[in-house]
Amino acid sequence: MTSRNPYIKTVKHKPMTHPAALAIATLAMPLALHAQTSEQLPEVRVEGRATSDFQVRTSVSDKFTARLLDTPKSVTVIPTAVIAQTGATSLTEALRTVPGITIGAGEGGNPVGDNLFIRGYNAQSDTYVDGIRDTGSASREIFALEQVEVVKGPNSAYGGRSSAGGGVNLVSKTAKAENFNNATVGIGSAQYRRVTADLNRTIGNDAAVRLNLMGHDTHVAGRNEIHGDRWGVAPTVTFGLTGPTRVSIGYYHMESSELPDTGIPFNNPFSTGPNVARNGNGTPVDVPRDSYYGLLNRDFRDTQTDIGTIDVKHDLGNGLTVRNVTRYGRNSNDYVWTQPDDSKGNTVLYGTVWRRANTRVTETDSLANTTALSGSRVWAGMKHTFTTGIEIGREETDRSSYLFAPGTNNPLTKTFTCPTFGAGTLYNCTSLVNPNANDPWEYTRSVSPARTNVHTNTRSAYAFDTVELAPQWLLNLGLRWDDYRSKLDVPQYTLDGKTINAQQAEVKSNFTNYQAGLVYKPSANSSVYVSYGTSSTPPGNDGGDGSDGLSVTVHNLKPQDSKNFELGTKWEVLARRLSLSAALFKSEMNNARVTAPDGTTQNVGKKSVEGIELGISGNLTPNWMVFGGYTWLDGRLDDNGYVNTAASGQPAVYQPSPYNGNVFPTTPKNSASLWTSYTVLPGVTVGGGVNYVSKVYANVNNTKYAPGYTRFDAMASYEVNKNITLQLNVQNLTDKLYFDKVSSPHYAGVAPGRTAIVTAAFAF
């Protein structure tokens, strides 16, 4: 049953010292605690919904063959209680509580949606629903989720093709063997309205049904024109709750319609020439917070997601379980979205903005099946807890864009330069400081005949095993083989009277990834580990719907291979009410795709990230709960390939990239979050949170960046009676102006201003 919300109190920390010293101190702290306690630390279970929901000790994934305490990898689980307390209503809002993750902005080739970066690496295609890849660009909801699991470091052993940074697994709500009715009704500032329902009923003694519903409508505080609404439904039915065979059938549907945010443009610095003196400082331009550069009669974004799942699990006896999951999914993403482009230095030279129209008409279909055998056995005198399985998948994306008549360039210059703005430019140029979203822009819109089809087939086999070498020593092993085939097809088409030839590209690749970790347990409630893992990112990793697209330029290249070294420790202290974790890691990508000395794209680049992660989750006392962490990242473009330094019209001259050694874009050096609650009186809880993110670069040049920020949130809750709880959330308490989406070198996304929300939770 969904619990009532725990509550929070802000905790102040002393200033952090150098990250390495901080990590060493944190690694040593649990050892000191252990010196004061016995290894036979009793298992204390604090009764109460707040504690049991707040701390999650296991992952629901079959591929984790040990408790999180004994898993030699950085894993953060965001439980339902944290999601509810923070007032999160989307995946990106929930992930704000996990440092080391940044949210990227959409761009021309990068779709609007959940663009995640984990440990500095693009993880846009590394989102999973119940362990199966969720393909296609989408903005994901949380109304039908039990928890969110974030796995840091190379993820290919778990999920196949992936980035070097990690992946996010969404755990769906399913029917349970109990009866409950839960609902929420929320209202707030910026015309916030939200209702949800979570209903579960047993059918006889062996089956149950569950229904989750959601309706949501809101504007964005501080961004007057931005608004959106969505609704969703997620029914599930489970048979065999008490027998050896359990069958769960689920369906998820969500639709959204919104006016997408254009953000605020950067100053476009000049590197040479007479205009260098007019450069800004590389930050977003200083304009009113509500400056909106889009067009109300042009811009829109409509999405739809449908997922159907059949999950069959059978207990074979003797400690063995077989499971088969079949999943069909469809995502559509349809939009016209104005990007406030700063090309040609419009913002600096003329005080204008070109209203670049980014458009997309995309539909992605996927079909996947996975079969796994899990269990435990004693072989060669050692206990093995294992999972082995096979996965088969097919993904197909159809993608196009919109054409406009008249076009979207400035007819006065026949380019995207904007010395002036207004009717003469057909309103394709607007004022930097006083844009008018109601400009009478007139057009006809049609779908472009340039249509791209990408279909991807994968076959995979994997095995994981946790071997108990001795009571204090565990060996964790994982191996996965993938057969990856993806094909691009762009049929011949005619545009503006010109015939554009057909285009095909295909990649066929096999790759094997593995992980190995050695765990030492100083006590039953602790672990210290070293681990090594690999990852592979083949060309076209995004399946046709992202920034890592398949093309004739990259189709014959090898996958980008990454490796990760990690030293960490995990402890459950204070009678196992509180979980602590710390890790030192280094990730390397040694064959990144970059421009080679001859001007072609080759696997000759190198990237690396060194970092420290600290985490805390659980209860300091039965009434005081905490959830948070700190991440320090040093991401470097060690070898960014070559650039053409010849003047325009002259033969190409390639020199080593001047950006070698620069910092990864979208990678803050320091990020931290803390969410904490305290029950001050029976039924009365107060709390708050803080998020800190340091400067984030928007380009490899390191000339544009979003400044660092600190955001504060507050919450209070009152249990009226056993059936009704009232909760007040004030997000961005100080109304801080900051930028929360940075990956395009042209603009930065503006975060919502102060928002107050009152939610009534009903349980009956």
Automatic annotation (TrEMBL):
Bilayer disposition of the protein: Multi-pass membrane protein
Motif TonB C-terminal box, residue numbers: 747-764
Start and end residues of each TonB-dependent receptor-like beta-barrel domain: 265-733
InterPro entries: Beta-barrel_TonB, Beta-barrel_TonB_sf, Plug_dom, Plug_dom_sf, TonB-dep_rcpt-like, TonB_rcpt_CS, TonB_sidphr_rcpt
Locations listed in the record: Cell outer membrane
Pfam family, one: TonB_dep_Rec_b-barrel
TonB-dependent receptor plug domain sequence ranges: 68-166
GO MF term set: siderophore uptake transmembrane transporter activity; signaling receptor activity
UniProt record similarity statement: Belongs to the TonB-dependent receptor family.
PANTHER family linked: CATECHOLATE SIDEROPHORE RECEPTOR FIU, FERRICHROME IRON RECEPTOR-RELATED
Record's protein name: TonB-dependent siderophore receptor
Lineage: Bacteria, Pseudomonadati, Pseudomonadota, Betaproteobacteria, Burkholderiales
